[in-house]
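A reminder from the course coordinator: this example appears on the midterm review sheet, so study it carefully.

Given structure:
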C-alpha cells in the first residue's frame, strides 16, 4: 500500500469510480496508510481528502476542519479517519455554499448540500460511530463521501453561473469582508 501521495486531478478515471469497502481495518499496512494520509492532509491544509484522490480505490477519507481565510467560520476539529461511511438520514432542506477541492485546483463552486446528516462509519480501531453533523461538518462529510462514490463537487453545482475561479472568488470574498467592516 502506498504512502507516497500525489493528488489526482479532474479527469483521472479513479475520481469517477465507486470505491471498494475496506475489508481489513486492522491490517498494519492499512493503518500505516491512514497515518500517512492524516499527515498529508495536515501538510496540505485541507479540510479532508478521500482515498481515491490519492490513487486508492477504497471507501475511506480523512475529515478535518479548521478556521482559515476561505472558511473563517469552520469549527476546529482535528483530522480523523472515516472508514466505510454511509448516510443513514438527512434533512429535507439544503443550503448552498462555496466549495473547492484539492483535485480541482483553482475552481470554486456554489454547491447545495443537506443541512444535516446522520451517518455511520468505522474508526481506525474498527469501532462503529453513528452521529449527526450539521452545517459545515455535514458539508465536508458529504463532499468527501462524494469522492468515494465517484463524484466531484462540480457535479452538484446547479448552474455553470455558480462556478468561479479561485482568484476571483478570493477577490469577491475580500470585497464583501471590507464592506462589512
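Designed residues:
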Amino acid at each position: 500500500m502506498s504512502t507516497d501521495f500525489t493528488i489526482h486531478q479532474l479527469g483521472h478515471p479513479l475520481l469517477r469510480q465507486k470505491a471498494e469497502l475496506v475489508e481489513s481495518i486492522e491490517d498494519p499496512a492499512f493503518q500505516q496508510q491512514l497515518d500517512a494520509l492524516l499527515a498529508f492532509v495536515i501538510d496540505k491544509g485541507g479540510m479532508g481528502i478521500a482515498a481515491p484522490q490519492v490513487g486508492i480505490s477504497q471507501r475511506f477519507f480523512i475529515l478535518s476542519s479548521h478556521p482559515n481565510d476561505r472558511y473563517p467560520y469552520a469549527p476546529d476539529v482535528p483530522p480523523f479517519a472515516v472508514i466505510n461511511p454511509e448516510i443513514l438520514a438527512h434533512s429535507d432542506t439544503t443550503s448552498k455554499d462555496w466549495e473547492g477541492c484539492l483535485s480541482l485546483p483553482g475552481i470554486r463552486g456554489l454547491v447545495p448540500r443537506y443541512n444535516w446528516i446522520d451517518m455511520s462509519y468505522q474508526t481506525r480501531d474498527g469501532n462503529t460511530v453513528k452521529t449527526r453533523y450539521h452545517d459545515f461538518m455535514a458539508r465536508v462529510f458529504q463532499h468527501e463521501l462524494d469522492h468515494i462514490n465517484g463524484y466531484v463537487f462540480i457535479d452538484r453545482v446547479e448552474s455553470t453561473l455558480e462556478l468561479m475561479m479561485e482568484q476571483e472568488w478570493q477577490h469577491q470574498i475580500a470585497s464583501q469582508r471590507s464592506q462589512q467592516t
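The two ends are 50 Å apart (CA to CA). The mean pLDDT is 92.
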